[in-house]
Structure prediction request, 189 residues.
Amino acid sequence: MSTTQPTFNDILRLFRETDEKFKETDERFKETDKKFKETERFLKEVSAGIGRLGNRLGEFVEDAVRPAAVRLFRERGITVHEVQQNVSVQRGEEGLEIDLMVVNDSEAVAVECKSNLKIDDVNEHLERLAKLKRLLPRYATIKVMGAVAAMVIPDNVACYAASKGLFVIGQSGDDLAIRNDADFTPTVW
Prediction:
C-alpha cells in the first residue's frame, strides 16, 4: 500500500478551498445577522403598535365610562356635579394621574380605566388613592372613594377590587354597570 505525500500545490489548493468556504460562511452569517436585525426592528415596531393600541383601548374605556358615570353613581346615591377627565398633578418629585374624577360638593370618586383590568392595576390605583388628598389638596376636606372600570374584568380581579373597597364598573350586556352588590360600602380616603 503506497501513500503519496500531498504536494505543496495540493496543500495550497486545499487552503484556498477552505478559505473560500470560510468566506461563504462569513457571508451567510452577515446575511443572518442582517435578517435578525430586521426582525428585531419589526418586533419593536409591532410592540410599539400594540402599546399604542392598548392606550387607545384605555381611552375608549374612559370615553365610554365618562357619560355613564353620572347615571351609575347617581343610582348609588352619589350626586354628580362634574366629571373631570385626565386629572394630573406633579408636586416636586411626586405626581399622579387619575383617568376620571366624578365630583360633587362633598364627595369624589377617582376612577381608573383599563381595557383589561389586572390585580396590579388595582394595587396601583390604591396607591394613587392613598396620596390623592395630599397631592390634590382641593379634595382634602371631602370624601374620596375609588373605582376601577374596564372592558375585561376577570372575576377574581373584580372580587379583589371590591374587597379593597373600590367600585367595579364593567360591561353588563350592551351597557356599563357597577358590579358591586347593592349593599356594598366603599372605602373612603
Observations:
- Residues 1-189 form a domain with the Trna Endonuclease; Chain: A, domain 1 fold (CATH 3.40.1350).
- The chain has one domain: 1-189.
